[in-house]
Specification:
4 copies of one chain form a homotetramer. Chain A is built from 8 helices and 10 strands. Chain A has 258 residues and is an alpha/beta fold. Chain A is globular.
């Protein structure tokens, strides 16, 4: 059977007149859009626009919930209790479902943003709080979780659909964690190198650490970025490289997950 | 057939540690709760709490959307374009639907808050924008509209379920509009007087203006308040007075609307 | 005596990761920067950065207060009472003074932003409320007021220093008001045309309306923009044109006003 | 020489229609008010009102800066970098100075709020960032610092005036830290007990830990609360007890510090 993989990207991160990212370019490349919901970024108009474009492009949509911190763009850790955090996520899921009605679409996945993602990857209580919000509202929503993280554990425990996520443009340590951005070279920029790593990751179901260690790892979804023109170029190279290698690039909704 | 009427109140208008209103007292009196959704007031925790309590008390729930103005509590007119306004309302409907999932409840009505209500009562374009958001998300949501206002016209035009609203504690002018709060005596405080006016309003399907003019007007839902202890006392008197007069006090979801 | 004029521009309108405008380019052109203070745009980091750059470039600094509406970028009219509005402006003046201490600079002018500017130009009560905030905090702050507007009247009444403002890239009606942006051609884009109009405006102390009517009008400060690359080009052309015509382009603090 | 001490309280923590605390009652008891500045609570109107009342009552005023988190009332830790944090504090100092101009008053102290206080007490980098903001704007502002904390160290290092703070209604551990609120009995409620502890603390310049250990500690300022009626009663008892014991209760501005 042909290999398959999903490409996802963060979307809808404008706020009023403030613009971020090239959503239109990415929508031609990815299969699934993770849409900001007004807490770390995004506003109702922006959400509406992205939802309508995703519909046109056949891209599936998901919630990209973040902390209530527009100033910090959701990148600052906020020490919330897990009950507050759960309802904050539920609120954002609902809000996007409201906007998705304009396109007659369903919200089919969730991927936490920024610090909320980092904290959920490390802390099972936070990962479970997010999962409970998903399960309460719609138990079919796919939890997009960093492969090997506490989010993966939470999705399994709560019996939520799970997509294990990998990163195209980041080095990994020998233990399978992402190499800290503080280490020089931790973030890759060369489209050719990024493409080759990703194709190997998917074809051989392994991640090669920065020391050359080969870690078996099945990746369902690869995260690409659109904040800079070079990121869009790399995302395009990844898509083409995967297709050239015979990999099917699909929306999350068409993936065989498990 | 016995007369019937709904009592509604604004709810969930706390924000974090900031408390407003006596939601628990009102939930024993009213049939339908209009729940703030985080824009003029309210936060995910508060929304969750009100939804769970409403479920326990058999009170139906609705959206109480407001302007994005916590500082002004949604009472300041903001000159938004109608497209922005429509999506802002859709966002708030969705957010409450998300929280309602915790109680397994449906969101069954919408009543705009503060200045958004005042502006929609006067301006058909705003009233229609709100209605389009409702219709897009769930065409069964009941539009709670000041009787005789542009919101009523919008609900009829969009073929949305309509509940005509009356006010227990406000004087009316001869033309059926509410007497301005700037006129002394425009707001009633005496529970006995309020009760008597309301019972007459429902039994005789008429409003008596401050000059004694009798205006035929069928009221489906009466707005009560809980901001002050006296308001709760008056709300309780209204409920008892209506029941003593043989009027059935029902949730909006059990009303025969038309 | 040589003619003199000030060039001013709005600055510091980023918010966290969200970027707007090319402040660095404009700081080489203008004499005075009007700095957003965190209400319609701007944050403490951005304010700090602009203040430090203005110091380096010899550009004087002023407050650019706006409504508390980041989502609407201060462009939506909000119906505040004048007392609230006055204290809101005072707060923003103080906040910028705090940041200005890092450069050892004084805040020397104020120009309202967006809808607050439009409303103050038309409504003397709003114009006076802004002026009272200025006068309470520092009666030497220069009120940058659309020439002929209620802001000008307020500055005179409150005996505040006044700089009459003109627009480089806008047509005027015969009565001296700006031609509405809804009229085609109301906003000019050609740098050469803009430069010629401005040089005439300053040398001959007159504005020529779109119908060719010549209106005597002494302009102290000209507003330039930096939102688009073409705007920066036009601003540069204006500066060069004025200097070529022998006009001194000065910070507001070095102008002879009155 | 007679002993002297200051009583301080948090003030101005309303936000729009949302009310918290009994500022008027406390202003008759305390010598110094720490005023919220619109980030964790407070708005320009509220700041104005508290400043004017403080003037009437002869109470000195200070900044009570908090995190930009109204929803969490500044009680959630936010992981900001120290540069952002410094400018955020500078902004709030400036904003209060702006409002203080209405009363012709100077801002004479600073006490961080909630989590910002907790973090600054533990982390010298945060404590120094706050101190740098103070020193840049006005090097005479008194740093109100938990006795023995990193804030105390920062004030000394930056050569800022320092007031060592003690708590009236909290138990202390043997090492001089506050007993965690999670330990039963950590917060005292009995006015008589509170008063006796405080009088001993001031007269004998010692803190008695919950195990009875006597720790020498000179306290310049005691924190009282006004969130609940019982807190106001306790604050009043403290004031009377101190005066009965011959202690002078003074504004920070009249204290001999150092």
């Amino acid at each position: 059977m042909a290999k398959q993989v999903n490409l996802n990207a963060d979307m809808g991160e404008c706020f009023g007149v403030f613009k971020i990212g090239d959503d239109d370019a990415l929508l031609d490349i990815i299969g699934s859009a993770s849409i900001a919901c007004g807490f770390h970024a995004g506003d109702p108009n922006t959400m509406h626009k992205v939802v309508m474009r995703a519909k046109e492009k056949g891209v599936s949509i998901g919630v990209h919930p973040g902390f209530n911190d527009l100033w910090g763009f959701g990148r600052r850790r906020i020490d919330m209790n897990t009950r507050d955090l759960e309802y904050m996520v539920a609120y954002q899921i609902g809000a996007l479902q409201g906007m998705a009605a304009y396109a007659g679409m369903k919200v089919t996945h969730l991927k936490p943003h920024g610090s909320l993602n980092n904290m959920a990857a490390e802390d099972i209580e936070i990962a479970l709080a997010i999962g409970r919000a998903m399960k309460t509202i719609d138990r079919k929503i796919i939890y997009v979780a960093l492969a090997g993280s506490e989010m993966e554990a939470a999705a399994i425990k709560l019996e939520l659909p799970l997509a294990r996520e990998g990163f195209c443009d980041r080095l990994y340590d020998d233990d399978g964690n992402l190499t800290s951005r503080k280490i020089p070279g931790a973030v890759l920029h060369d489209p050719e190198e990024i493409k080759n790593r990703v194709v190997n990751m998917v074809l051989n179901e392994e991640i090669v650490s920065r020391n050359g260690k080969r870690l078996p790892r099945k990746i369902d979804s690869l995260c690409v970025h659109g904040d800079e023109p070079t990121a869009v170029t790399a995302a395009r190279a990844v898509r083409r490289g995967l297709e050239a290698a015979g990999v099917k690039v699909l929306p999350l909704t068409e993936m065989k997950l498990g």
